[in-house]
Amino acid sequence: MKFIDQTIIQVIAGNGGNGCINFRREKYIPKGGPDGGDGGDGGNVWLESNDNLNTLIDLRFKKIFQASHGENGSGRNCSGKKGNDIKIYVPVGTKIINCETREIIGDLIEHKQKILIAKGGWHGLGNTRFKSSINRTPRQRTLGSIGEKRNIQLELILIADVGTLGMPNAGKSTLVKSISRARTKVANYPFTTINPILGSVSTQNGKFIIADIPGIIKNASQGSGLGINFLKHLERCKILLHIVDLCPTNYSNPIENIEIVLNELKKYNPLLYKKPRWLVLNKIDLIESSEIGKIIDKIKKFLKIEDKFYLISAIKKTGIKKLCSDISFYLKG
Predict the structure, then answer these.
(1) Any known ligand binding at 215?
(2) Which residues bind GTP (predicted)?
(3) Among the four residues 76, 155, 223, 237, which has the most C-beta atoms within 10 Å?
């Protein structure tokens, strides 16, 4: 199934039914008085999250959702039938934004969480409501009100504890695959990951969810490569793992690649850039042990900060257990 994380739909609530003007007319009751009933309320439009969904693709083709109108009132004080509500199911992690005002209407982050997105119109009143001691034969009624109509943007942001970022072929997918049951695609060419993928990781200290997103390249913020649209899926993460290839094959070097990713991250969202971020230096199995220390010294000098470093080989699963254990311990704290 194709991964769609953003779409725009129109939601239209039902109109309220009109009130009725009617008078009771029966044999032997010549002056039965008013008996016009109220109309029915219009149907509402709801959004409900469901953790069995992981894409907005179903809403890509159906763009308009309309609830039914309330029925008009009738004689004998019969009220009109209420319009049926409709419910739109979306994945957990869906953010709802008003297209006109850009206001965030809601954020569905739990299973079966509901939000009223368009309220149905109020019912009109029948002439029975206007009867009084000085108005025995009222000929007034009110019309039902119009239901709400909105254009809304739905934006899916995956819910994960840990997010990975880095250049293409840095080993992000291999790492996620080696520590979880996620079915990530691994191959020796760039952009093997074209959609975000979630994996569940179990350790002695507990469990966590890790997100694998497509690689970032230079000028991604200007549309190069797959762009940086998928970076939004890291916004809910509590910690980021910056995966670095210690043995790149594209004539670049680890420090240059670190700088590219950090610059693109900062351009995209300064708040995301400030999230806790650990450097995970991958593919140590391809480098002589004497060279690893020199590379780490250069990286520390470049960053000019004391940061967490992990040396791993995702494909050989070297250093993986310690990394996962520290992540679980950090998330608990």
Answers:
(1) yes
(2) 166-173, 191-195, 212-215, 282-285, 313-315
(3) 237
